[in-house]
Write the structure tokens for this entry.
Amino acid sequence: MKFTAKQISELVNGLIEGDPDVTIHKVSKIEQGEPGSISFLSNPLYTQYIYKTEASIVIVNKSFVPEHPVKATLVRVNSAEVAFAKLLELYNQIKDNKKGISRQCFIAESAKLGENPYVGEFAYIGENTQIGNNVKIHPQVYIGDNTQIGDNTILYPGVKIYSDIVIGKNCIFHAGVVIGSDGFRFAPQNEGNKKIPQIGNVVIEDDVEMGANCAIDRATLGSTIIRKGVKFDNLVHIAHNCEIGENTYIAAATGIAGSTKLGKNCLISGHVSMAPHLTIADNTSMGGATGVSKSLTKPGLSYLGAPAMEVSKFRRSIVHFRNLPEIVERIEKLEKEHKQK
Amino acid sequence: MKFTAKQISELVNGLIEGDPDVTIHKVSKIEQGEPGSISFLSNPLYTQYIYKTEASIVIVNKSFVPEHPVKATLVRVNSAEVAFAKLLELYNQIKDNKKGISRQCFIAESAKLGENPYVGEFAYIGENTQIGNNVKIHPQVYIGDNTQIGDNTILYPGVKIYSDIVIGKNCIFHAGVVIGSDGFRFAPQNEGNKKIPQIGNVVIEDDVEMGANCAIDRATLGSTIIRKGVKFDNLVHIAHNCEIGENTYIAAATGIAGSTKLGKNCLISGHVSMAPHLTIADNTSMGGATGVSKSLTKPGLSYLGAPAMEVSKFRRSIVHFRNLPEIVERIEKLEKEHKQK
Amino acid sequence: MKFTAKQISELVNGLIEGDPDVTIHKVSKIEQGEPGSISFLSNPLYTQYIYKTEASIVIVNKSFVPEHPVKATLVRVNSAEVAFAKLLELYNQIKDNKKGISRQCFIAESAKLGENPYVGEFAYIGENTQIGNNVKIHPQVYIGDNTQIGDNTILYPGVKIYSDIVIGKNCIFHAGVVIGSDGFRFAPQNEGNKKIPQIGNVVIEDDVEMGANCAIDRATLGSTIIRKGVKFDNLVHIAHNCEIGENTYIAAATGIAGSTKLGKNCLISGHVSMAPHLTIADNTSMGGATGVSKSLTKPGLSYLGAPAMEVSKFRRSIVHFRNLPEIVERIEKLEKEHKQK
């Protein structure tokens, strides 16, 4: 898609300075601007770049006074930052504008689609499944039987949703996400490692986003629950019967073992591992690769290390860990001095 | 699917107490019972909930004597726990009852299917591939050329099995599992990072289960081997030429580097990492995020930490690690006292 | 596929000793040779196995003089190792010889395919996407709109490439790889956790290989960049706006947070985690499960531990960590002795 400076200026209610017919087809940072791209200038530290940028259009504040000649066409607005954010959102809406039902997908007769659907090529929708309005089901997505998907939710290519899952509104699932695989529960090895049936489901509330290749297991009985506003990065693992509290964010490659409950507004970094059957308080933060083996029930604290310690304590201990050779030398010196006496 | 109390009582050989025509369509915990669900009461600690539960049917022991009125229809059996487990298994069998061959899949002419197959929409089965009896190949599964899949094995949606792989009977692979990708072997960077051809395969024996998005590489030469009864959680990585011993369980996000051999009946927690070319003895246990850089050849031991230590030793060291600031203060005190003499 | 000893000898320019009509259909190690397989003998340590091997054909150096009878047909060449490597490469080319465009795939009218394409069943190619010559797009691959794929690149089954991505020549992406999912960027939780639009892309240069189920996020603005010759193992996570330098190798389950830049020729082991906004120098090595929270700007060093320390320092500290109980006993002894005085 191409846009002229004139079209851009109308979208953001701005004034053109330069060629109104110049076209752009992509977005760039001002310091990396290429011909055919649009950029913006808001932070004064970046003003230097506007004189060199190859971007075809730059959105600037009305107050901007150039000190050298500017090659790009300028669009002057009240707030360059706000105008640019608005443009990005419009751009995203236009970009992900797929509509209609492919002739090469499979929709069970008993499934129900909402208004304004997109069902891409080679997608599969199972028996009795109910899809809300404006849902985007990209190519090669699988949705099992008896599953519900709320309005405006986006399933990117190759997402797999098992049967009996409940998903809220305005959710986004990136490619390769799996929702509803069996929990990892078996009888002990010496008892013939028999599989324990996993007949619960997964309930995902509104406004949840999950990155690529996340894996969320169904509950053994009852539900694995992901509360409103939760965000996962890529490759996150959530085991059977976990509950992740409202607005908690979890970074990439973190895994949470069975039946552990996280509170609200937690900030969990990448590569964190949590043992099963723990309770983690609201507003807990964890640094990268924290290993949690016990419940953390006091809200608002930050942790680091494996096993997890409060960050300030971990930092004090780790300084001494790095100095252990010197510490041992000091002990040896004391021992020698003692002997000499 | 709906079942009446009468049907349930016949399945578990029980006696109805209450409305024989009440129907259920799902399973719940007794303390979370909702109308339309079936639950069970076995543990006396949960007896309190039977008087409040909204479950429509509760399976109880014959010996159960209510002390208050019970709203649910009861089904009395010799052992509520055994009867409920039996019901769950029947339910699972009914739930995963897909059959037949979709008209929207691809099966190479030279491929051979066993009896009673399920091949879902957009599944692909390559040349000379042999599929056993009662195998369930869900939608969007890929099976390459010259691959063998044993009887009763289930491939959930989107599983990818490369060419020349051998898979046993009664295996379960969850969505997103990849079997047979190339091993990570390249000539050193200063020698032009040429790829080393990976022409071995993967052999998976009977009764193996793998969670969502696991990745199992083929051998460089010979076979990557997963023995009978092995169970993997989600997002497990197994490199080229590894061998995982019989009945070993591996939890989520664990990764094992090339040519490492694990013994039988090991219990490996999540986020464990193992270096290449190691040997791990039978019955070894590892706690979460253990990092193994050397072979562990004495069977039956438990490890923790990175690098791995025996659990009891690691625990003793970590207590002192947490106290390092205090330990250093004690040394400082000794040093001062020494000087004063 | 089957080959006779005569065909093999012609391929590697060798002399047959034994039955020229014996056939092989697979490759084996000499110590594990089975009938119907071909093997080679180069390392003298393995000479013992040639007298027992069940392999039907063994490639040997011209200089090889048997001391006992050999059952296998021999093919004598100048260098058995070189000849065998050549055979493996030919075998790989023959094995992955899929061609043509399936009638069950979807290719947008505005997409452009190069010469000699393979587009497998249920693959999807979006609007304005350009595919180079000899590209292999296996079944169930997804390629979004406006994406470019260079010559000779292989996309294994189920790979998902989002829109606006640029991929070079001679790349290999294993099953389940996702390229171009949104970066993990949201407004803080107390500001309504609004999604920050992710409108950048991913640029992957020539000769890059990625293992199964890797996840590479698009940039917020600009590009996430993977330079020429980079190799990833399975389940690697690369966040938005990262840059991975030329010929850097990254092992399985490693994750790199947003905007971090790695230099050239780095060797990163498995389960490594890196914080956002770091700079890592050229030729840096990291051991398994290293946790990097600060930039490492001196080239050519090796690191281990979390937080990362230079390997030699980490090893010295960890020895003392293991001895902490004994170290504390020594302090206690000093304290007691001090009191007695």
